[in-house]
Write a structure and sequence with these properties.
Strand content: 15-25%
Radius of gyration: 24 Å
Largest sheet: 6 strands, antiparallel
Helix content: 40-55%
Strand order of the largest sheet: 2-3-1-9-8-10
């Protein structure tokens, strides 16, 4: 296993020295790109084509289509070339169109003359970071490699701390290392020797309602949308199935993972293994539904028991596997699932991630209700069923409501952060900036006019790219397997934004068109059940197996020296004080996750 680094410097020898300092193994014939051996990842290369050299973490799901396209352009690729080389050839020969045509999970770094070109896949399944120091550009899929770069001298980025506590992940280009940025999905960056950066978006979801309605009025019938969606779901699942070997599916029992299970069982000629989680019989769970789906689809089903003791013993390990912290209490269970899949000898595991951010899950309802009651929006929450309606007194009310809807630490920051931290943040850009482009898009071709689509676009580009996909990828990669998400397929996403909002949120029924598209595949009790989500016993863990660990970490010398959090607030949360509803557990979990990540990356005081 390996990850990769790339460097643009004044001379090849200087580039090679910088890469070696980051822990990469440098070849004499390709001194500007190299692999970081021993880190969990699928990096491969270097590759050379058309005078350009590249390294990448590239898995392509539509190789035959890309090979045919290149052959039609008069530049056929060797049939057996690695995926990274094939993607390099698509870009070198066809430019942005060549990358746009690719379907897969990829991060690619290309030396192109005097530039370093960085390319990240459409939806963000793989990550790529970059920084500039001492007259050089460096990029890597491993944040640890950039952390080791002596020229950079990384320290903690305080604004990113605030972003993490607000979202439970980092929603945009910033990282917790000052000076290090993340390439956004669907983007191609050109880093020049003079220090300039040019960003070229090659794909962004656009609202094209009615274009797939086959000549009918855009909202007159749901049937064309459901039928086309079913075709796309089958194609997306089929292209992600491994060749001539079994496949795994992470099956929670919700409709999203259930439909992926049903499609895999229908389309795959080899055994399908399904995996579910249990936190104990005394807690509410979805095991009845996942068991029903497994029996219905005739899969080889396993239920993993996850105890609080197991979470306590492995939380630091899971946090250290992530390039950016994720305040999701399912990180350790996800890691244990990946271990189970690998232990069964499988190389690929599918999941149902993507249904909520793409087709309108329950996280949008608080925003829809809030918008209905805004005084500055004439005619209600203008946009769900029609166009326009932003009001004449635009401020950041919509963005602030969105941040509040996360129910994380956004409203607690004045009480949680120390006075010194708050003072240092006074002039920093506010976290609302990450959602403004989606919730109040500027007038342009393809803008999202409907509020629901604006919310989905925001969810896709923030939580989808910087939490859901990256968490799954890093935890599965740590076990040498690939986690693939058919519902994040680019064409599925495009179709979702070409579907009228009324067919995604139909009255009070969420993800309606998705459910209609697969109704014949699953029992009605699964398709029509309300979403409940995984009931993770965070409060119990923090009051039991994690209590001592949390106290030692959050109130210990190292945390105090960092000067981020007020001790009195942390102690109050640990005593479950301060609010009517017991949400301190989830908030305390964010603080604990952040502290563990900072220790894993050896980030000291500011």
């Amino acid at each position: 296993m390996a990850r990769f680094c790339a460097c643009l410097a004044a001379t090849p020898d200087r580039a090679a020295d910088q890469l070696a300092a980051m822990g990469a193994t440098v070849r004499a014939d390709t001194p500007g790109v190299a692999l970081v051996e021993g880190e969990p990842g699928p990096a491969d290369g270097p590759f050379t084509a058309y005078g350009r050299t590249a390294v990448g973490e590239v898995t392509l799901h539509n190789r035959p289509e890309l090979l045919t396209t290149l052959a039609g352009s008069g530049a056929p690729a060797p049939p057996g070339c690695p995926d990274g080389e094939l993607l390099l050839r698509c870009w070198a020969r066809l430019g942005a169109a060549g990358i746009r045509a690719a379907e897969g999970m990829f991060a690619l770094a290309v030396h192109d003359g005097g530039e370093l070109v960085l390319i990240r896949d459409h939806v963000g399944a793989r990550t790529l970071f970059y920084a500039r120091a001492d007259g050089c550009w460096a990029a890597s899929t491993s944040l640890r490699s950039l952390r080791r770069w002596p020229a950079l001298g990384t320290v903690l980025e305080l604004a990113a701390v605030r972003s993490f506590l607000t979202f439970a992940y980092l929603p945009g280009e910033e990282t917790l290392l000052r000076g290090v940025r993340e390439v956004l999905p669907g983007r191609c960056l050109r880093l020049s020797a003079d220090g300039s950066v040019a960003e070229e978006p090659y794909w962004e979801p656009e609202e094209r309602i009615g274009e797939q309605s086959e000549g009918r009025a855009a909202s007159s019938s749901s049937e064309p949308y459901a039928l086309r969606l079913r075709e796309l779901l089958e194609e997306a699942t089929a292209m992600r199935l491994p060749d001539a070997q079994p496949v795994g599916v992470l099956l929670s029992g919700g409709v999203d993972s259930s439909l992926v299970t049903a499609l895999a069982a229908k389309l795959h000629a080899h055994p399908v293994h399904t995996y579910s989680i249990s936190f104990g019989d005394e807690l509410p769970n979805e095991l009845g539904y996942s068991g029903l789906v497994a029996a219905h689809c005739h899969t080889r089903h396993r239920v993993l028991d996850v105890s609080g003791d197991a979470v306590a013993s492995r939380l630091a390990e899971a946090a250290g596997l992530l390039d950016s912290p994720v305040g999701d209490p399912l990180t350790v269970p996800n890691l244990m699932l990946a271990e189970a899949v690998a232990g069964d000898g499988l190389n690929v595991v599918l999941n149902g991630e993507g249904g909520d951010p793409v087709f309108g899950g329950p996280k949008n309802l608080p925003m829809l209700v809030q918008e209905m009651h805004r005084d500055d929006v004439p005619g209600g929450y203008g946009g769900y069923g029609g166009h326009g309606g932003y009001g004449v007194n635009e401020d950041d009310a919509r963005e602030t409501a969105y941040l509040r809807s996360y129910r994380k630490c956004f409203t607690d920051l004045p009480d949680l952060l120390t006075a010194d931290a708050l003072e240092a943040l006074a002039a920093a850009p506010r976290p609302q900036r990450f959602v403004t482009p989606y919730l109040r898009p500027e007038a342009r071709d393809g803008r999202m006019n409907h509020l629901l689509n604006q919310l989905l676009h925001c969810n896709l580009r923030t939580k989808g790219a910087h939490h859901i996909l990256t968490k799954v990828e890093r935890l599965t990669a740590s076990q040498g397997i690939e986690g693939r998400a058919p519902l994040f397929d680019r064409r599925v996403v495009d179709h979702a934004f070409a579907t009228p909002p009324r067919w995604k949120l139909n009255g009070a029924v969420e993800k309606w068109v998705l459910k209609e598209a697969v109704r014949d595949l699953l029992p009605g009790t699964v398709v029509d059940r309300p979403k409940s989500g995984m009931r993770v016993p965070v409060q119990q863990w923090l009051g039991g197996p994690l209590r001592e660990l949390a106290g030692d970490l959050l109130l210990g010398r190292e945390a105090r020296a960092r000067g981020l959090f007020r001790e009195d607030t942390v102690r109050a949360w640990m005593r479950r004080e301060g609010t009517l509803l017991p949400r301190q557990g989830g908030k305390l979990w964010l603080v604990l996750t952040l502290e563990l990540w900072l220790r894993a990356y050896d980030i000291g005081p500011r």
